[in-house]
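Job type: complex structure
Entries:
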Amino acid sequence: MDNSAVTPAAKRLADYKPYGFEIKSVDLVFDLDPQRTRVTSRLKIKKTNLSQNKLMLDGEGLALLSFKVNGQVYEAFRVVENGLQVVFPFENADVEIVTECLPSENKSLEGLYYAASTFCTQCEAEGFRKITYFPDRPDVLTTYTVKVIADQEKYPYLLCNGNKTGQGELANGRHWATWHDPFKKPCYLFALVAGNFDQVTDQYTTISGRDVALELYVDKGNGSRGQHALDSLKKSMQWDEQTFGLEYDLDVYMVVAVDFFNMGAMENKGLNVFNSKFVLANAESATDEDYFNIESIIAHEYFHNWTGNRVTCRDWFQLSLKEGLTVFRDQQFSSDMSSHISNRIKQVRVMREHQFAEDAGPMSHPIRPDEVIEMNNFYTVTVYDKGAEVIRMIHTLLGQDGFRKGMDCYFERHDGQAVTCDDFVQAMQDASGVDLSQFRRWYSQSGTPVVSVSKHYDPANNTLTISLKQTHPPTAGQKEKQNLHIPVAWELFDKRTDEVKSGVFSLLNDADDLVIENVNAEQNIALFTDFSAPVKVQQAIDNSESLEIMLYAKDSFARWDAAQSVYSDLIWKRADTGGDVAGDIAAIAQQLISAGISDLGLLSELLSLPGFEYLSEQREKVDVLTLYSAREAVRKSLADALNTFAVDYIEGFENKPYQYETSDAEKRRLKNLLLQYHTLASGQTDLAQQQFSLANNMTDSLGALHALRTPGTLGCFESLMLDFEQKWHDDVLVLDKWFALHAGTDRDDILPTLDLLTSHQRFTFDNPNRVRSVVGTFAFYNVPQFHKEDGSGYQYVADNIIRLNSVNPQVASRIITPLLKWKKLTGPQAENMRLQLTRIADTSGLSKDVYEKVTKSLGSD
Ligand code: B3K
Ligand code: ZN
């Protein structure tokens, strides 16, 4: 760390204090210019804590032009490092602040920025302070009236939150629009966009009969790719009315797609801003996965209108209040729109492959963190996905009706307020009568609980006793742990019949027994069905029992989970002993093929190996390259065992005109998985080449390229990649897929290849999507090359983090994740990775974002 720099300070949940002032309204005027934008802010302020005489306004990188109180120039304030400290003896006052900011120099894509000829804002978490001096905290809610002024020809659309109240022309080719948002909101939900777009419109009538205009704004020429997003929006609006009785509240709902965006999307009130990747789709350019993501992210942002906007967070430590809950809501929506089991497995993969790893590493934190240096670092799989699992457990414990009552109570109590996670749990408890006092610990305790299971069957009494124990390994920054309330869903099944008995048991103590009566010797038990709790299960279970569950349990998740554990054992056996497991794999493959599984989504999952990251999480330390090779060897055995089945399935596949529809998508998914296995097993390229040349959709084109990206067929892969690049040269969203395919290729000349990619005409380090496609894909997914023994992969990523740190700290801080886990590695990798982290730590001008992660990783904890 550069010693001259000030060490960034952490903020603590325990230090929360109310603001002390009410902002009764704010009136903003934006005079937009890419080089220098002037913002005039008029605040009506009322003191609520009469003993407080200092008003703190946050601000960062602003030029202050004037400051007035009640119409008079006012000088009793100090410009401090992160804002203004104003002497404020008034009970009520009108404050006017004029500032300037520099949108085109803002590459961080936070605050007001100018990119690709568009003005755009991103305020969550703390970006509003880069626009004007203001209490940039989520518990300060107010109503906004905004006037936007800009050049008319370049920026015909001037958009802001709420309803448009006026527009007009000015001299010099400029024009203006005024907007008013009647709903009080925190400033993180403020948005402004000015640019030239294709506008696609639609309409929705709410359940109570109100008409809402739906407006989508996309890059010129892309209008035809917007229909799926609009359809998804209408489905989301309807689903929320039917499922939770929640209706949209403004007359217009706008979604703007922009090319330069740090994340997926943002739920600004009435004016969502989206990464264009999650809006634009047609069959030729978007995959089934893109279609799925668009639908679920449109839904997620829409659902925030109630869970996040109408009821918001008191402080940023409560982020999971809105994110965990909204992820849970979008997961339920996706399940209802497509297949429950495919969605559930996808969610569990995210938990096991990413969240468990985060929770075992240096950035481990509870879903409600206690301490934060840079808030943007806490938009994590823990806050989002584990947060959603916590909500799901409440849903499991309360049941559908109890949960709905809890939601109703939450909105009745807190509409229009900024509240805490505790307020949410209290509403759930009060409305349902279920005691959630011990359950609340899930909010404050980090780490993945381990539940160990042993079983005892008593044939004399026909009772099955399941002894369950919970343990909680210490995590970074949190050594002491408490017992949690863990819902253990179970299913007793009999392979000879369809009968099934099921229940949910609450594990509350160190050890508890679940006793089931009237059990016969033929019955089997599956535990944690549907992944009823985000825990690791330790169970001395033999392979034959796992295989019974895999083949005969009624709960599809339990079947998949059993297959995962059998595969894991075989991969580890291979890694530990080098032994040949091809025979075991062939037997499993054969059983799955002959089981007559009609759910093709489930079949694809049953035929897929556990991810590399999930396997790594099963041991304290890993020899990454050995584990990787073992997994590859097992993959080859599985491919060999499936080859005949694969060829039959692919050759018998009926190609239809493309539509995004669940059963078609699942068929394509299985076909593309089998194509990978076939190419890997046979080294033959004809089926993949044929698919590539006949493909009428992006899923199949990419599926063919993926299949060919194996060591034996790289020549063919390269030549089709050239064709692909020529065809899609002008479409950056598709080109990102091409960048990622290259960056994830296991080849010894990967570093020069990456350099070629970053010097490609369409590549720029200023665009987060491009950076993620190349540097991100390499760091996260190219396991053998990233972890190369000579440390060159780590060095490449570290170089790029240092470069991005000064351009866009949020992007740098995301990509650093794979470099944080050096303590988990064995061999030269551990030291090589630590060296690169130290090099990053020594960089001068390190952003708070990168600083927080690097110091945690290098620290002694
Ligand atoms: N709330 C935003 C994420 C904001 C991230 C700020 N670094 C999108 C979402 O979760 O819906
Ligand atoms: Zn969200």
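Summary: Residues 490 and 527 are 5 Å apart (CA to CA). The first strand starts at residue 11 and ends at 12.
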